[in-house]
Amino acid sequence: GAVVSQHPSWVICKSGTSVKIECRSLDFQATTMFWYRQFPKQSLMLMATSNEGSKATYEQGVEKDKFLINHASLTLSTLTVTSAHPEDSSFYICSARDLGRDTQYFGPGTRLTVL
Amino acid sequence: GESVGLHLPTLSVQEGDNSIINCAYSNSASDYFIWYKQESGKGPQFIIDIRSNMDKRQGQRVTVLLNKTVKHLSLQIAATQPGDSAVYFCAETVVGYSTLTFGKGTMLLVSP
Questions:
Q1: Nearest to B89 among A43, A103, A111 (CB)
Q2: Per residue in B76-89, pLDDT tens?
Q3: How far is CA A76 from CA A100, B83, B111, in A?
Q4: I want to staple A104 with a disulfide (CB 3.0 to 4.6 A). Which of A22, A58, A95, B20 is the partner?
């Protein structure tokens, strides 16, 4: 149980294009999903908290117009990196919190490379 | 702000040894702690959790110890195997508050 998927697992795009990453909870309903960014050999950095049916809450320093988050259902959240640039290249990981529990379960991550 | 830190960035052990990974936390309000394992190129995988009303919890080959007096958390892995090689993160939160605070991570290297 508690499986979270992400799609795509990796993506390479040209500078200036937009990329959408999907995060799905497969066997549970997640009222809250989280988006993290991770650089090599570093810990996870929380970007935003996404609540189903409401606007996402962004961490300080994260541009909400650049990283668009939509949480349209209890099993799906999307992160769109708009007008991507090479400095946006990173490993993006989502997590989902099971309704009524405090544990977050993580997706496998998406490796984004912007050329 | 307050953060969770780790004493050892890298731990090297021999297969079959017992491993102990440590974590210090500074937020005295935290009452729920989780250990995650992250293999290269993958997302963190839940290992075990513990609430502040406990000081020990055991899973399969893993044990988490919580010392609230000194704000210290540890993960013990029995009979470490090469497949245990990964980065281990501790995370803390307050029950009902959704955000996790992650430690810096410890790389566990298991030699055959």
A1: A43
A2: 999 999 999 999 99
A3: 18, 31, 40
A4: A95
